[in-house]
Specification:
The structure is a single chain. The protein has a domain at 67-208: Tetracycline Repressor, domain 2, CATH 1.10.357.10. 69% of the residues lie in helices and 0% in strands. It has 9 helices and no strands. The protein has helices at 16-37, 45-52, 59-62, 66-89, 96-113, 121-127, 135-160, 170-191, 195-208. The radius of gyration is 21 Å and the shape is elongated.
Length: 209
């Protein structure tokens, strides 16, 4: 008898598990779009379902509640952004400080590409924390801590190469960067222009040199 693993796949509908994974991905993608634009509280599930092309009754097949969906979106955004930071901060074709500059330029271009309608999901939810499930707090802080630790490593590498003075505390600089950068992102979204991002970045790099 021929091994089932060697038999050709039958034509027809895709496997249910693959179809389910695709629907779940669409829901997450739509959720990220709406939460980076509007935040958590103002967005209704109906908007997300329409955008994802998922029937109204289909949501609870994948998520037990809006809060459960929110937790998944925070984790997905954190993973996406950590990967983005690693792509820039581990790029050995650039000097360490140039890697941080490249991240800033890429972030500015990303916001401009969406007409500054989309901000940072973590920052957006942090602004709403008083109205969110308390369990979100630790998830948001953990995401920011992860980004901050990556930035601190990049700054320590810059110190090792003489781009940043050794007298600076890299961890404190990284914390300062993210506190200021999140504020700049919020202001850029409010004003629909890149000036707040550029102003903060210019001040931060001037401080280092």
């Amino acid at each position: 008898m021929e091994d089932a693993a060697q038999q050709p796949r039958r034509r027809g509908r895709p496997r249910r598990d693959l179809a389910d994974a695709d629907v779940r991905r669409r829901l997450i993608r739509s959720g990220l779009i709406f939460l980076t634009e509007k935040g958590y509280s103002p967005v209704g599930l109906d908007e997300i379902l329409r955008h994802a092309g998922v029937p109204k009754g289909g949501f609870y097949h994948y998520f037990s509640s809006k809060a459960d969906f929110g937790r998944v979106l925070i984790a997905a955004y954190h993973a996406y952004f950590a990967e983005k930071l690693d792509r820039w901060f581990l790029d050995e074709s650039l000097t360490p400080l140039s890697r941080l500059r490249a991240f800033v330029a890429d972030a500015e271009q990303g916001m401009a590409r969406h007409d500054f309608r989309r901000g940072c999901l973590i920052g957006n939810l942090g602004q709403e924390m008083g109205a969110l499930p308390e369990e979100f707090r630790d998830l948001l802080v953990s995401a920011l801590d992860g980004w901050q630790s990556r930035t601190a490593r990049c700054l320590r590498a810059a110190q090792a190469e003489g781009e940043v003075a050794s007298r600076h505390d890299a961890d404190a600089l990284a914390a300062f960067f993210w506190i200021g950068w999140e504020g700049a992102v919020l202001r850029a979204k409010l004003e629909r222009r890149a000036d707040p991002l550029s102003a903060f970045a210019d001040g931060f790099f001037a401080m280092l040199t």
